[in-house]
Write a structure and sequence with these properties.
Elements lengths: L1 E6 L3 H12 L4 E7 L2 H11 L3 E5 L7 H10 L5 E6 L4 H9 L4 E4 L4 H12 L7 H10 L4
Parallel strand pairs: 1-2, 1-3, 3-4, 4-5
Length: 140
């Protein structure tokens, strides 16, 4: 069973994610929060296998959390769940070692497939998103 921390500033989506994962026998949600600051604290304290994070949250978003995970070498595989990402954000996420990127428009089965693949040590980076990143390039 894989441990998970969830973070999204939309309460309805956060509850929905918890419900989906509660029904999946291979995932255990350790904590869920609407705060990026709290998500970073939870990741640091609980050391989950996976963190599913919204990229755009007030104060501390997913990219800032991934930057800290990388800097502090926290043993968590980060998956971004987002409504939209610019090519530059995708390039930055990939260059910082994010394990997966999912758009919120995807079906729940795709989320579970992504989480299972990432948990097993494989990246989940859809080609159409990577193509956007390639055309934007990383931040200077």
């Amino acid at each position: 069973m894989y441990s998970v921390v969830l973070a999204d500033d939309h309460p309805l989506l956060l509850r929905g994610l918890q419900g989906v994962l509660k029904a999946a026998p291979d995932f255990n949600v350790l904590a869920a929060t609407a705060s990026g600051v709290q998500a970073l604290s939870l990741i640091s304290d609980l050391r989950p296998d996976l963190a599913v994070l919204d990229v755009s949250m007030p104060n501390v978003g997913g990219l800032a959390i991934q930057r800290t995970v990388l800097k502090e070498r926290l043993p968590v595989k980060v998956i971004f769940l987002t409504a939209s990402l610019t090519g530059r954000q995708i390039a930055d996420a990939i260059s910082m070692g994010v394990w997966g990127i999912l758009l919120k428009e995807y079906a729940t089965e795709v989320l579970l497939d992504c989480m299972r693949q990432v948990a097993s040590g494989e990246k989940w980076l859809p080609p159409e998103l990577v193509a956007r990143a390639t055309s934007a390039g990383p931040c200077p």
